[in-house]
Design a protein that fits this description.
single chain, about 160 residues, alpha+beta, five-stranded mixed sheet, 2 helices, 10 strands, about 35% strand
Length: about 160
């Protein structure tokens, strides 16, 4: 059990590390809108190992997120100095979707990345051989889920991915 947890932590750390080391030329540009944390309507899809767990349009914005494993932390795009102002983010949208639709999720907080890694959704966990990937409009996010800015109409997906 301990070896599985260590392996999962290593896979998550490597995945986040790779995502957060993308060069600034490929990172998402900062928004110049004066109030960027205005609520947006996005579609959140959660695809587990056995199929679709959740799919619905929700209204979301960046906010503080609390998980059982990770505690309470900011998840509003200011993480890792990604944006100067608060913005809606994929992980905040997952949190809003879970709270408003009665499903659970948990994530580990990594202070070195200033971001969460999603560990479980509705009891489906990555374990040592899988992880939860995040994509927006079909493309993997180049930064963490609390750092990527979402816009109205975006399609965010959390997908259980076998490694």
């Amino acid at each position: 059990m301990r070896q599985t947890l260590l392996r999962r932590a290593a896979v998550t750390t490597v995945t986040l590390g790779l995502a957060l080391t993308i060069t600034p030329t490929t990172a998402q540009a900062q928004s110049t809108a004066p109030y960027t944390n205005a609520p947006v309507r996005v579609t959140v899809t959660v695809q587990g190992p056995d199929g679709l767990l959740f799919q619905k349009k929700i209204i979301t914005s960046g906010h503080d997120v609390t998980t059982a494993t990770g505690g309470t932390h900011t998840c509003d795009g200011t993480n890792g100095s990604a944006h100067a102002t608060k913005v809606p983010t994929p992980t905040a949208s997952l949190d809003h979707a879970a709270k408003r639709n009665g499903f659970t999720w948990d994530g580990t907080w990594y202070a070195s990345f200033d971001d969460y890694a999603v560990d479980t959704v509705e009891g489906a966990s990555g374990g040592g051989s899988a992880y939860w990937s995040i994509s927006v409009n079909g493309a993997p996010t180049p930064v963490g889920g609390c750092q990527f800015e979402m816009e109205n109409g975006d399609q965010v997906a959390f997908t259980w991915t076998s490694s």
